[in-house]
Write a structure and sequence with these properties.
The structure is a homodimer.
Chain A: H1 2-14, H2 35-45, E1 50-51, E2 54-55, H3 62-77, E3 83-84, E4 90-94, E5 103-109, H4 122-137, E6 146-151, H5 159-165, H6 170-174, H7 183-189, H8 197-200, E7 207-215, H9 220-224, E8 228-234, E9 236-245, E10 249-250, H10 262-278, E11 285-294, E12 300-301, E13 304-313, H11 316-337, E14 340-349, E15 352-353, H12 356-368, E16 373-378, H13 383-387, E17 393-398, H14 414-434
Parallel strand pairs in A: 5-6, 5-7, 7-17, 8-16
Antiparallel strand pairs in A: 1-2, 3-4, 4-6, 8-15, 8-17, 9-13, 9-14, 10-12, 11-13
Helix pairs in contact in A: 2-4, 2-14, 3-4, 4-14, 10-11, 12-14
């Protein structure tokens, strides 16, 4: 085995030609991704689902199907021999030298939101394939098998990654996506099989780790000029639906002190939620994103208002504390305004911390490439949060220009994408050599 | 002429049989309406447009057409010889003894809002017809001619009364009502004629006054147990559309201090508007009745919010003052929240004070009937506000149970309706005898 390792070591560090950017000095250096090719693949992928309003490659749509076909072809070209598992995830594998070792999983998703952009998910997906292709071209044989995954339907609720670690409920399968197709029907449409779901699940020990390259979707890296974000963890999330019920009445004939104005109550609550999360140090965020007024007529005092609250933080106890705070504020405002208050949770995700050992490896990799790094939470959800239940996870962020995401204006610069892919590649090589 | 007046005086006070409620004591007293008949007519009218959700007799609908036919028949039975003027108003006339005098105009409307009740407009319309019928049965001949009017389309913006005093603009005529029919088409549908609008208009001097009996649509009379509201004036109204524009962004990845949250700005503005109108003495009211959020998604910081403000007061200067105050508040909140603020007026009605002499006559009439009165503003708009431009106006309010209006739960008790009609009748008799 030693001789084989020695040869592999040579392959890893000797098979890449000297690159001009190293000043022509003859030295051995690790392989690097082909940034031009990676960015070209991203541009090619962006054609699927392109529309005047943005990229529409929502899960199970025609655009999703052709985008997946394109990704599978790239995987084949990278020697990954892709297959579609029963869940509908596209999984490619590059065998390692030591079959007894768990595999290293890398990847992301290529489905988009409605009127989205070309970077969210795409960068990590094309980046993971590029790493496999670079390894193949560099003739690097890893000790661990490398698995590249394109998870199905991330934007509809991390469906592909969730199904990889747990069985679905009936209501999970019945959920209808923006394409108008349910998860149940979508799985068949993309080449999966409901009957095989259980067999397709993976378990603790299957993976050494899961690494995901992703755009930040926030503006911190862009604003601070840092190259690479090392994700501390994916924030936990609570979604609430809040209803204030008052009494609809004539806007002209009802004196101010006789009103039970649900809109006033909802407005006070919206302001109070904002003040509450900003009143203590921390990176917790809360958002009132949707609000509907009934009857919603210019000359009627609103009788009922329903609104949503999106609360996120890295710490579970922060979520619990603010949930209680919002309930107390709602009750107090209802009492002040003569309305009633009801609040129910509509969605819950627990925080998913990344593995500190993986954070360290990512930092070392970035440093070896001369890139600056920043430790930061991920405010958005990712497939990594699901895989965290069966494997250590790590995430590498690259800058989003202006922090814009889920928009046709989403942009990450080609050089930043190449940097991120190189950090992912070096991290994989380092983990393969030295473990976690 | 003296002899004729003397005979008329006899007719006015002597033609009514002694009523049992006067204890059988033989005394002369003024005529009183037939309350049972009046309330029966209201019940019969309520059949037109009845639906499970409430009364739907919106202007120009089938239900409106049959309701108008019913009202015209009642007018014929009351000896009013009704005609439909070019505007589409139903106008009946009872000739007076002195043709040179201006006529006394009484009436209201019978069109309803969507899912409305059976009292708003109906009480004043059936009440006015009842007065004509009582006069006919009592063989009372007034000095002034009495005109009874059922204005077309009050709920769509006091259309019939407005056209009685001013020419329409093209956009007035193009407005499409809840029936799906424009004012332009509606006029033809109900028997009017666009070509005759100018000739149908009335001018200053045509009417001694306009008197309208109406339900309060607020809860003040019901709460205080007072029989009759004497309307001080119809409040002026300003409708505004306010837009806060921020920047839509990811609810998870955008730190609280980096947001340009249009929803937060709108909520602060809603609270500030409420506080502003309550911070000074007065009966001014302001309502945020409609609010729409864009994109309106649970996990996106809202980029734009549009809301309406309905501002009303009896005094024009109060409306001006609060308009300025709202603008200042909006600008201040926009600066605080990193958003932009725009506010535009979408509708304007100037306050329409009632004539103090008419208020006094109404008060005297109520007192003569042993009824309690309260001077109060009308927070709702009425046809009277339009007629105010060419004649002194007076309004008589009767209690709305619970202050509920524009709802199937609208209710005014039969005894209160009869009281109101009797006050209207006595006021007409007094004005006819003694002038304003």
């Amino acid at each position: 085995m030693r001789r084989r390792e020695f040869l592999a070591g040579l392959a890893a560090f000797g098979a890449v030609p000297e690159l001009p950017e190293f000043g022509g000095i003859a030295r051995r250096h690790p392989p690097q991704v082909n940034g031009d090719r990676l960015n070209r693949h991203l541009a090619e992928l962006s054609a699927f689902g392109k529309s005047p309003g943005g990229t529409n490659r929502v899960a199970y749509s025609e655009a999703d199907l052709v985008g997946r076909k394109y990704a599978a072809e790239l995987m084949r070209a990278a020697g990954l021999d892709p297959r579609i598992d029963a869940i509908g995830n596209i999984v490619g594998r590059r065998e390692g030298r030591e079959p007894s070792l768990p595999s290293i999983l890398i990847g992301s998703h290529i489905d988009s939101v409605t009127n989205g952009g070309n970077y969210d998910g795409d960068v990590g997906s094309m980046g993971a394939i590029e790493i496999a292709q670079t390894l193949a071209e560099s003739m690097v044989m890893l000790r661990h098998s490398l698995e590249v995954v394109i998870f199905q339907n991330e934007e509809g609720g991390t469906v592909g990654s969730k199904l990889m670690v747990q069985p679905p409920t009936d209501s999970d399968l019945d959920r209808v996506m923006r394409s108008g197709i349910s998860v149940r029907d979508g799985i068949g449409r993309i080449g999966g099989s409901l009957a095989g779901l259980a067999a397709a699940r993976r378990k603790a020990g299957d993976f050494l780790c899961y690494l995901e390259l992703h755009i930040e979707q926030g503006g911190i890296l862009d604003r601070t000029g840092v190259n690479i974000g090392i994700v501390e963890g994916i924030v936990g999330l609570r979604w609430f639906e809040v209803t204030f019920t008052g009494f609809a009445n004539h806007a002209g004939t009802t004196p101010m002190n006789q009103r039970k104005d649900a809109m006033l109550a909802a407005a006070k609550f919206t302001v109070a939620v904002n003040q509450a999360v900003r009143s203590v140090p921390g990176r917790q965020v809360a958002t009132v994103g949707r609000l509907t007024v009934s009857p919603g007529t210019v000359n009627i005092v609103p009788g009922e208002v329903t609104l949503t609250v999106d609360l996120r933080d890295l710490k579970a106890e922060t979520l619990v504390r603010f949930t209680k705070r919002f309930e107390a504020l709602g009750k107090q405002i209802a009492a002040e305004t003569g309305t009633t208050f009801a609040m129910r949770a509509t969605s819950t995700n627990e925080p998913a911390p990344t593995d500190p050992r993986l954070r360290r490896r990512i930092a070392q990799s970035a440093e070896s490439l001369g890139l600056t790094t920043l430790l930061m939470p991920s405010g958005a959800g990712h497939d990594a949060q699901e895989i965290a239940r069966i494997a250590p996870i790590g995430m590498i962020f690259v800058p989003s220009v202006g922090g814009v995401s889920h928009s046709p204006n989403e942009l990450t610069r080609p050089g930043d994408i190449t940097n991120g892919a190189n950090v992912l590649l070096q991290t994989v090589l380092m983990l393969d050599r030295s473990g976690l």
